[in-house]
Protein backbone atom coordinates (compact mmCIF):
# COMPACT_ATOMS: atom_id res chain seq x y z
CA UNK A 1 0.00 0.00 0.00
CA UNK A 2 1.35 3.42 -0.94
CA UNK A 3 2.23 5.76 1.92
CA UNK A 4 -0.39 8.32 0.87
CA UNK A 5 -3.13 5.68 0.80
CA UNK A 6 -2.03 4.34 4.19
CA UNK A 7 -2.23 7.85 5.65
CA UNK A 8 -5.66 8.39 4.11
CA UNK A 9 -6.94 5.16 5.63
CA UNK A 10 -5.41 6.08 8.99
CA UNK A 11 -7.38 9.33 9.02
CA UNK A 12 -10.60 7.61 7.91
CA UNK A 13 -10.26 4.92 10.58
CA UNK A 14 -9.75 7.52 13.29
CA UNK A 15 -12.69 9.57 12.08
CA UNK A 16 -14.97 6.54 11.92
CA UNK A 17 -14.24 5.74 15.56
CA UNK A 18 -15.39 9.26 16.44
CA UNK A 19 -18.49 9.09 14.25
CA UNK A 20 -19.40 5.85 16.02
CA UNK A 21 -19.35 7.54 19.42
CA UNK A 22 -20.53 11.11 18.77
CA UNK A 23 -22.96 13.07 16.68
CA UNK A 24 -21.71 14.69 13.49
CA UNK A 25 -21.92 18.25 14.83
CA UNK A 26 -19.96 17.32 17.96
CA UNK A 27 -16.91 16.15 16.01
CA UNK A 28 -14.22 18.64 15.02
CA UNK A 29 -11.34 18.25 12.62
CA UNK A 30 -9.05 18.98 15.58
CA UNK A 31 -10.46 15.89 17.31
CA UNK A 32 -9.95 13.82 14.17
CA UNK A 33 -6.35 15.03 13.95
CA UNK A 34 -5.66 14.10 17.58
CA UNK A 35 -7.23 10.66 17.20
CA UNK A 36 -5.35 9.99 13.96
CA UNK A 37 -2.10 11.39 15.41
CA UNK A 38 -1.61 13.75 12.46
CA UNK A 39 -1.68 17.49 11.98
CA UNK A 40 -4.97 19.10 10.98
CA UNK A 41 -3.31 20.39 7.82
CA UNK A 42 -2.55 16.80 6.85
CA UNK A 43 -6.26 15.95 6.98
CA UNK A 44 -7.11 18.82 4.65
CA UNK A 45 -4.59 17.54 2.11
CA UNK A 46 -6.80 14.47 1.75
CA UNK A 47 -10.28 15.76 2.56
CA UNK A 48 -11.68 19.21 1.80
CA UNK A 49 -14.11 19.18 4.73
CA UNK A 50 -15.58 17.07 7.51
CA UNK A 51 -18.48 16.28 5.20
CA UNK A 52 -16.09 15.04 2.50
CA UNK A 53 -14.34 12.89 5.10
CA UNK A 54 -17.59 11.29 6.22
CA UNK A 55 -18.69 10.62 2.64
CA UNK A 56 -15.32 9.03 1.87
CA UNK A 57 -15.76 6.71 4.86
CA UNK A 58 -19.23 5.75 3.67
CA UNK A 59 -18.07 5.08 0.12
CA UNK A 60 -15.26 2.88 1.43
CA UNK A 61 -17.68 1.00 3.68
CA UNK A 62 -20.13 0.42 0.85
CA UNK A 63 -17.31 -0.87 -1.34
CA UNK A 64 -16.47 -3.33 1.45
CA UNK A 65 -20.10 -4.47 1.51
CA UNK A 66 -20.24 -4.80 -2.27
CA UNK A 67 -17.11 -6.95 -2.28
CA UNK A 68 -18.46 -9.13 0.53
CA UNK A 69 -21.73 -9.70 -1.35
CA UNK A 70 -19.91 -10.51 -4.60
CA UNK A 71 -17.68 -13.02 -2.83
CA UNK A 72 -20.61 -14.66 -1.05
CA UNK A 73 -22.63 -14.89 -4.26
CA UNK A 74 -19.83 -16.85 -5.93
CA UNK A 75 -19.14 -19.31 -3.13
CA UNK A 76 -19.60 -22.99 -4.02
CA UNK A 77 -22.65 -24.84 -2.78
CA UNK A 78 -26.36 -24.82 -3.48
CA UNK A 79 -28.46 -21.71 -3.96
CA UNK A 80 -30.03 -21.69 -0.50
CA UNK A 81 -26.65 -21.87 1.25
CA UNK A 82 -25.31 -19.05 -0.92
CA UNK A 83 -28.40 -16.97 -0.15
CA UNK A 84 -28.03 -17.41 3.61
CA UNK A 85 -24.31 -16.63 3.49
CA UNK A 86 -24.92 -13.44 1.53
CA UNK A 87 -27.72 -12.34 3.86
CA UNK A 88 -25.49 -12.89 6.89
CA UNK A 89 -22.79 -10.69 5.39
CA UNK A 90 -25.25 -7.91 4.62
CA UNK A 91 -26.71 -8.00 8.13
CA UNK A 92 -23.28 -8.17 9.78
CA UNK A 93 -22.11 -5.17 7.79
CA UNK A 94 -25.07 -3.06 8.88
CA UNK A 95 -24.72 -4.10 12.50
CA UNK A 96 -21.04 -3.15 12.52
CA UNK A 97 -21.27 0.06 10.47
CA UNK A 98 -24.80 1.32 11.14
CA UNK A 99 -23.45 4.40 12.95
CA UNK A 100 -21.81 5.61 9.75
CA UNK A 101 -24.91 5.05 7.65
CA UNK A 102 -26.98 6.91 10.23
CA UNK A 103 -24.61 9.87 10.20
CA UNK A 104 -24.63 10.17 6.43
CA UNK A 105 -28.42 9.89 6.34
CA UNK A 106 -28.63 12.97 8.58
CA UNK A 107 -26.12 14.79 6.39
CA UNK A 108 -28.09 13.94 3.27
CA UNK A 109 -31.27 15.42 4.72
CA UNK A 110 -29.73 18.85 5.23
CA UNK A 111 -27.70 19.17 2.04
CA UNK A 112 -29.08 21.69 -0.43
CA UNK A 113 -28.94 22.44 -4.15
CA UNK A 114 -26.37 20.77 -6.38
CA UNK A 115 -24.61 19.00 -3.50
CA UNK A 116 -27.83 17.31 -2.45
CA UNK A 117 -28.50 16.14 -6.00
CA UNK A 118 -25.00 14.73 -6.38
CA UNK A 119 -25.20 13.03 -2.99
CA UNK A 120 -28.48 11.28 -3.78
CA UNK A 121 -27.25 10.27 -7.23
CA UNK A 122 -24.13 8.64 -5.76
CA UNK A 123 -26.21 6.95 -3.06
CA UNK A 124 -28.62 5.60 -5.68
CA UNK A 125 -25.76 4.34 -7.87
CA UNK A 126 -24.19 2.54 -4.90
CA UNK A 127 -27.54 0.92 -4.12
CA UNK A 128 -27.95 -0.24 -7.72
CA UNK A 129 -24.49 -1.80 -7.70
CA UNK A 130 -25.29 -3.64 -4.48
CA UNK A 131 -28.61 -4.80 -5.90
CA UNK A 132 -26.94 -6.18 -9.03
CA UNK A 133 -24.38 -8.03 -6.90
CA UNK A 134 -27.10 -9.52 -4.69
CA UNK A 135 -29.09 -10.47 -7.78
CA UNK A 136 -26.28 -12.80 -8.83
CA UNK A 137 -27.34 -15.12 -6.00
CA UNK A 138 -30.89 -15.24 -7.33
CA UNK A 139 -29.65 -15.86 -10.85
CA UNK A 140 -28.20 -19.09 -9.48
CA UNK A 141 -31.60 -20.02 -8.09
CA UNK A 142 -33.31 -19.22 -11.37
CA UNK A 143 -30.73 -21.24 -13.31
CA UNK A 144 -31.26 -24.16 -10.92
CA UNK A 145 -35.01 -24.01 -11.55
CA UNK A 146 -35.98 -23.43 -7.91
CA UNK A 147 -37.22 -19.83 -8.20
CA UNK A 148 -40.58 -18.60 -9.45
CA UNK A 149 -40.77 -17.98 -13.17
CA UNK A 150 -41.41 -14.50 -14.49
CA UNK A 151 -39.76 -12.60 -11.62
CA UNK A 152 -36.43 -10.93 -12.34
CA UNK A 153 -33.42 -11.63 -10.15
CA UNK A 154 -33.02 -7.93 -9.31
CA UNK A 155 -36.66 -7.73 -8.24
CA UNK A 156 -36.21 -10.64 -5.84
CA UNK A 157 -32.96 -9.14 -4.58
CA UNK A 158 -34.61 -5.78 -3.95
CA UNK A 159 -37.50 -7.30 -2.00
CA UNK A 160 -35.26 -9.37 0.26
CA UNK A 161 -32.75 -6.54 0.71
CA UNK A 162 -35.49 -4.26 2.02
CA UNK A 163 -36.70 -7.02 4.33
CA UNK A 164 -33.17 -7.46 5.66
CA UNK A 165 -32.88 -3.72 6.35
CA UNK A 166 -36.19 -3.71 8.20
CA UNK A 167 -35.34 -6.86 10.16
CA UNK A 168 -31.95 -5.45 11.12
CA UNK A 169 -33.45 -2.17 12.32
CA UNK A 170 -35.99 -4.02 14.45
CA UNK A 171 -33.26 -6.25 15.85
CA UNK A 172 -31.16 -3.27 16.93
CA UNK A 173 -34.19 -2.03 18.87
CA UNK A 174 -34.86 -5.48 20.35
CA UNK A 175 -38.20 -5.92 18.60
CA UNK A 176 -37.79 -9.17 16.64
CA UNK A 177 -36.13 -11.61 19.02
CA UNK A 178 -38.63 -14.29 17.95
CA UNK A 179 -37.48 -14.27 14.31
CA UNK A 180 -33.98 -15.39 13.34
CA UNK A 181 -32.25 -14.44 10.12
CA UNK A 182 -32.71 -18.01 8.92
CA UNK A 183 -36.41 -17.71 9.71
CA UNK A 184 -36.69 -14.48 7.75
CA UNK A 185 -35.02 -16.02 4.71
CA UNK A 186 -37.28 -19.07 4.96
CA UNK A 187 -40.38 -16.85 5.07
CA UNK A 188 -39.13 -15.03 1.99
CA UNK A 189 -38.50 -18.33 0.22
CA UNK A 190 -42.04 -19.50 0.94
CA UNK A 191 -43.17 -16.89 -1.55
CA UNK A 192 -40.19 -16.81 -3.89
CA UNK A 193 -39.49 -20.47 -4.51
CA UNK A 194 -41.01 -22.27 -7.42
CA UNK A 195 -43.21 -24.87 -5.76
CA UNK A 196 -44.90 -28.08 -6.74
CA UNK A 197 -47.86 -29.19 -4.61
CA UNK A 198 -47.13 -26.26 -2.24
CA UNK A 199 -43.90 -27.86 -1.06
CA UNK A 200 -40.58 -26.07 -0.57
CA UNK A 201 -37.49 -27.54 -2.18
CA UNK A 202 -35.65 -29.83 0.21
CA UNK A 203 -32.73 -27.42 0.78
CA UNK A 204 -35.10 -24.67 1.97
CA UNK A 205 -36.54 -26.95 4.66
CA UNK A 206 -33.18 -27.76 6.21
In short:
It contains 9 helices and no strands. By secondary structure, it is mainly alpha-helical.
CATH fold descriptor of the largest domain: Tetracycline Repressor, domain 2
Helix and strand composition category: mainly alpha
- Write down the overall geometry: elongated
Provide the residue-averaged pLDDT: 85
Sequence stretches where pLDDT stays below 50 over 5 or more residues: none
CATH homologous superfamily descriptor of the largest domain: Tetracycline Repressor, domain 2
- Count of spatially separate domains: 2
What is the makeup of the main sheet?
none
Provide structural commentary.
By secondary structure, the chain is an all-alpha fold. The chain folds into two domains: 1-48, Arc Repressor Mutant, subunit A (Orthogonal Bundle); 50-192, Tetracycline Repressor, domain 2, CATH 1.10.357.10. Helices cover 76% and strands 0% of the residues. It contains nine helices and no strands. The chain has helices at residues 3-21, 29-36, 40-46, 50-73, 79-110, 113-143, 153-172, 181-192, 202-205. α1 crosses α4, α1 (3-21) crosses α5 (79-110) and α5 (79-110) crosses α7 (153-172). The longest helix is centred in the middle third of the chain and has 32 residues, at 79-110. The radius of gyration is 20 Å and the shape is elongated. The termini are far apart. The mean pLDDT is 85.
Keywords:
206 residues, mainly alpha, 9 helices, 76% helix, Arc Repressor Mutant, subunit A, Tetracycline Repressor, domain 2, elongated, single chain
Amino acid sequence: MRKTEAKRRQIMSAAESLFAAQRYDEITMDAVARTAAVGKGTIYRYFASKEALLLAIVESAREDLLQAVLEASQEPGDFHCALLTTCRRIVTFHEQRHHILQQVFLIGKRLAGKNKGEFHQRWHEDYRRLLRAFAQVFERGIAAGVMREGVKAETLAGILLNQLYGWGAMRMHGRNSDLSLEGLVELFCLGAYRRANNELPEQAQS
